[in-house]
Amino acid sequence: MVSSLAAKLRFRRRKVGPERGEPISWMGWLRIVLRAIALALALSVCVPLHYAFRQVQYGSPFPKIFLRVACRLCGARLRIHGVPLKRDVFYIANHLSWMDILALGGASGTAFVAKAELATAPLVGWLARINRTVFVSREDRLGVADQINRLREALADNWSVTVFPEGTTTDGKSLLPFKTAMLRVLEPPPPGVLVQPVVLDYGGDIGEWIGWIGTEAGVDNAKRVLARRGSFKLEVFFLEPFDPRDYGGRKAIAAEARARILPALEAQLGESVRPFAHAVGQIGYVPPRTDAA
Predict the structure, then answer these.
(1) Going from the N-terminus, what domains does the chain have, and what CATH number goes with each?
(2) Can you give the pTM of this predicted structure?
(3) Per-residue DSSP letters for 85-115?
(4) Exposed (0-12), middle (13-18) or buried (19+): which is 4, by Cβ within 10 Å?
């Protein structure tokens, strides 16, 4: 007990990396370069093998292998709890960082639903397309039906799809209300498809530091994470799946998934989740007012 407490105190005193806005040291830049080189080497091996494999068989394992390797190269030590369903599954997960994609893709081989802006991002957009990412635009109200159709195709094609229904990334100690637009694919559910809730936990302080939140740019967040010294724990909890046919529509399905994710997340945190402190205009979220005034 004493040794555990001492370990926690040492962790809290340990510098985990540059704070948001703090300049990256020369050692940090060296880590960024070395990790970028390692990622490029892994990519140069996995991509040709992926295309070669696709010549003889459809389901290539190499996107999953690359994402698992990339997750480790970026500093995460992935621990998987529970059993991810291998096919005909719709994962619903909380969301902190772009690292979530590496972790979930590396753990299960799932495809993802991502913002349309990602499709035009250099390299990242190309990698996302290799993994059959479904790109959606919140502004394209008239194209929702087409997006749902593409999501159905991806689910049939890739056997599994992951949605982050919070609609944004948080700090690991909050859980926003779930948006249900992309759950329309489950109205009605495709034959045989189950929903499996997933909890991502980086560990309290590390998760809050890694979280891509506030006004921080994505590139700045990536640089901070890649510049960080040492490794960090990233635990993925695959909870018990449920049959979406037992729930009346996407809102009920989202509510059930959140009702399962919330206690599992709080059990990991050792405390109740807190209100998210940052306004997120794209999903219409405004943090609750305090009585400090």
Answers:
(1) 25-271 (3.40.1130)
(2) 0.85
(3) -SSSEEEEE----THHHHHHHHHH--EEEEE
(4) exposed
- Report the C-alpha gap between 173 and 6 in whole angstroms: 23
- Show the tokens assigned to 58: 């459809």
DSSP result, the chain: -HHHHHHHHHHHHS--SPPTTPPPPHHHHHHHHHHHHHHHHHHHHHHHHHHHHHHH-S--SHHHHHHHHHHHHTTEEEEEES---SSSEEEEE----THHHHHHHHHH--EEEEEGGGGGSTTHHHHHHHTTPEEE-TT-GGGHHHHHHHHHHHHHHHSEEEE-TTSS---SS--PPPP-GGGGGGSSPPTT-EEEEEEEE--HHHHHHH---TT--HHHHHHHHHH--S-EEEEEEE---B-GGGSSSHHHHHHHHHHHHHHHHHHHHTS------S-BGGGTB-PPPPS--
pLDDT in tens, 7-52: 444 444 444 445 566 788 899 999 999 999 999 999 999 989 988 9
- Distances, alpha carbon 107 to alpha carbons 236, 241, 282, in Å: 8, 16, 29
